[in-house]
Amino acid sequence: MAQTDSQSSTFSDIVELNVGGQVYVTRLETLTAVPDSLLWTKFTQSSPGDLPKDSKGRFFFDRDGFLFRYILDYLRDAELYLPEYFKERRRLQKEADFFQLPELSRRLATAGKDGSYAEDSGEPEDSELTSPVTSTTSSSFSDRTPRSPGAGAGYITIGYRGSYTIGRDIQADAKFRRVARITVCSKISLAKEVFGESLNESRDPDRPPDKYTARYYLKYNFLEQAFDRLAEVGFHMVACNSTGTCSYAGNDPADDKLWTSYTEYVFSR
Q1: Which member of 47, 105, 106, 142 has the greatest number of CB atoms within 10 A?
Q2: In this structure, are strands 59-61 and 14-19 parallel, antiparallel, or unpaired?
Q3: By the 8 A CB rule, do 192 and 255 touch?
Q4: Bridge partners (DSSP) listed for residue 165
Q5: d(CA 243, CA 262)
Q6: CA distances, 39 to each of 11, 43, 60, 146 (Å)
Q7: What is the DSSP string of the chain?
Q8: Nearest C-alpha neighbor of 24 from the set 64, 78, 51
């Protein structure tokens, strides 16, 4: 009888993680990039059945899910760029200690002493932290393009259907209604990485992470929540389009007009 994933003695090349409720999809070689780190130990000295999993079979770590994206970025690349006005350096250093990344922890501590990452000063802190995985010679880094926190390039399309009424008096303010559903169209692994547990997968569950979907939607009530999250992980809006139809709220043409629209925003990283 063929072994199930939970019974297999080896890990797959693509690994799904649940870190404090945030879902990440990455490669096994990324998790094991730093020898003797906690993730290296877990994913080279153990078997899949030895590690705790969530209800969907993802390997679970009870740590700060949002800060883990910086840990993962550090493992992926030769340098790490933290966002401006980063106020969680000490917490990130604590996460680095937990995941047994002493070089990252040391550099965070050093950056804090020289003021580059002042938590309360409000000063910018776009500084480089070099990974021990690769050489630190200047020539090895000069040819690299800085990457945004959170991983590789890709596109995510955010869509929503909304409606609002405009009264007979054209000077009156439009009466907007709350957005009913915000949809996500992208590669599955990218959507899970960016939105984590805020992503509702019930309409398109259990598909491979390398496939694309247009059926996910977000557990948000406001578009700005989605926009803020995309901005946090390095996405920028590159296009937008919208269509709309008009009808009357009542039977009388003199009644308020009801507008229904569908809008899509395209983001790129």
Answers
A1: 105
A2: parallel
A3: no
A4: 175, 258
A5: 5
A6: 13, 6, 12, 24
A7: -PPPTTT-SS--SEEEEEETTEEEEEEHHHHTSSTTSHHHHHHHSS-GGGS-B-TTS-EEE-S-TTTHHHHHHHHHSSEEEPPTT---HHHHHHHHHHTT-HHHHHHHHHHHHTTTT-SSS------EEE-TTS---HHHHHTPPP--TT----EEEEEEEEEEEE-SSTTSPPEE----EEEEEEEHHHHHHHHGGGEE-TTSTT--TTSEEEEEEES-S-HHHHHHHHHHTT-EEEEEEEEEEEEESSSSTTSPEEEEEEEEEEEE-
A8: 64
160 phi and psi angles, rounded to 5 deg? -155, 150
The residue assigned the tokens 């992470």 is 209
Determine the Cα–Cα distance for residues 105 and 93; give it in Å rounded to an integer. 5
Residue 25: beta bridge partners? 16
Mean pLDDT split into 10-residue runs, the chain, 269 residues:
52 93 92 94 92 93 91 84 80 94 89 52 45 42 41 85 62 54 89 87 71 86 89 92 72 65 90
Q: Identity (one letter) of the amino acid at 38?
A: L
What's the pLDDT at 43?
95
Distance from C-alpha of 149 to C-alpha of 117, rounded to nearest angstrom: 16
The 10 Å Cβ neighbour count of residue 139 is 7
Tokens of 218: 């977000």
Residues linked to residue 247 through DSSP beta bridges, in sequence order: 258
Instruction: Specify the pTM.
Output: 0.46
